[in-house]
Design brief:
Elements (H helix, E strand, L loop, with lengths): L18 H17 L1 E2 L16 E3 L15 E5 L2 E5 L6 E4 L4 E5 L4 E5 L8 E12 L5 E3 L8 E15 L3 E5 L11 E2 L5 E12 L6 E5 L5 E14 L5
Parallel strand pairs: 1-5
Antiparallel strand pairs: 2-3, 3-4, 5-6, 6-7, 8-15, 9-14, 10-13, 10-15, 11-12, 11-14
Amino acid sequence: MSNSPRIGLPYLDAAQAQKHVTMNEALARLDIFAAGRVETMALASPSASPAEGEGHIVPAAASGAWAGHDGTVAAFLNGGWEFISPWTGWRLWVESDTGFALYDGADWQLVSQPISPGGAMTALRSVEVDHTVAAGATSETAAFIPDKAIVLGVTARVTVGITGATTWWLGVTGSPDRYGSGFSGSLNAFSHGVTGSPLAYFGGSTLLLTAAGGNFTAGEVRIAVHYFELSPPRSV
């Protein structure tokens, strides 16, 4: 009997007896894969009374029924433990850590822990606006930076060539080059500005384009703000 190349699901053989056994084994494994979650990734040995379908990432130096299966995903199926070898890029939600673990080809890494047990969340987000450049020395965007956004950086790309100015700056009132200066106005020119230290903006905020070497006459820029958003614990 052969197995599928990626996740090792058993194939049915021609004229195979009791095909349902092989089919049910494949479905049980698919149930683990499709759910995309396990209970723990640091439990040293299995519990005495696991539930059917329970899954765990087996840590190093595990004992008991998990001994010798470090790094695999242990799934309790049909009354016993089955061990699934991970593949590079497999990502699973880990209930005990309220975060995602990623297999990097050598080990499992907890790559994000965005939600607290009470539902508080730290989300990495971006918001984007297409800004028509107004004629003059400066051009201010709409107030599209969300309230309480902790901004990591701002990027932009010229979608309609900017005319009138030789170059342009991107920033805010009082700090016109916070996100860079000397940008070209030609089509597809871009800016890639970082805040330095994450900076919180309040009440909905604008960005400012400043002309250099002349005044703006026309153009359009697509601007993206990259930020963290904090959400409080869920209501009780």
